[in-house]
Design goal:
26% strand; OB fold (Dihydrolipoamide Acetyltransferase, E2P); 221 residues; 6 strands; alpha+beta; 6 helices
Length: 221
């Protein structure tokens, strides 16, 4: 029995280990059972990076049961499943009954945060569209509008997370600055596009179509 976990029953934790093996199963529901080798279990703090957090326990291994519908989140955050690659995850320490009737403690995974992945996605799309396709088109304006809406959601999600924010890569302060910066960027982009469309000389110089200007004018901020 993992006695070191007993005092932390029902505690939310951050964990990192290495993928020793996995198997897709369908006992109670479709899942992937991942054998996590040498997991390190830590107490979360939104202002402290994972590497600097206090250790609650280190184990020889854990079996992590991931619902199939959640696999893509783990793969995005860990760059796919590969043998001996690191795996970072969040979960709740809970007690369970083994197949032989004995009791033990394990980590039950919670919904994994996509905050970092979403910010990276916005960054990549912004630079691709701006540098390859340009900004004075319907596609970029639509992206800036959608990005602003996504960023507002991510901002609220960040605040709701509290100390349950995964800090494997960055702390609260970094995510707060990054989100604020992108919110400002998306607003500036849309404002400049609207200004360009309202200036006849600029429209002619940059060959901005009437259709695009009508599209921008119809948008309500």
């Amino acid at each position: 029995m993992r006695k070191k976990l007993e005092p932390y029953l029902d505690t939310y934790v951050l964990c990192k280990g290495w993928i020793g093996d996995w198997k897709d199963i369908n006992e109670k529901r479709p899942q992937r059972r991942v054998f996590v080798s040498k997991p390190i279990i830590k107490q979360p703090n939104k202002d402290v990076l994972f590497k600097d957090l206090p250790i609650l326990s280190t184990e020889d291994h854990l079996n992590l049961f991931i619902d199939k519908e959640d696999l893509d989140v783990y793969e995005k955050n860990s760059n796919g499943f590969e043998l001996n690659s690191s795996l970072s995850f969040t979960g709740i320490i809970q007690r369970y009954m083994r197949s032989d009737g004995s009791m033990d403690y394990g980590i039950y995974p919670t919904s994994q945060s996509l905050l970092h992945y979403k910010l990276e996605e916005i960054n990549v799309l912004y630079h691709y569209l701006a540098e390859v396709e340009g900004v004075l088109n319907e596609r970029f304006f639509t992206f800036a509008k959608a990005a602003k809406e996504d960023l507002i959601f991510l901002s609220d999600d960040l605040e709701r997370s509290g100390d349950q924010l995964p800090t494997f890569l960055h702390t609260y302060d970094w995510y707060r600055r990054e989100i604020n910066s992108w919110l400002e960027t998306s607003e500036v982009c849309m404002t400049r596009i609207k200004t360009a469309c309202s200036n006849r000389a600029y429209r002619r110089k940059n060959k901005i179509s009437k259709e695009f200007c009508s599209f921008v004018k119809a948008f309500k901020s």
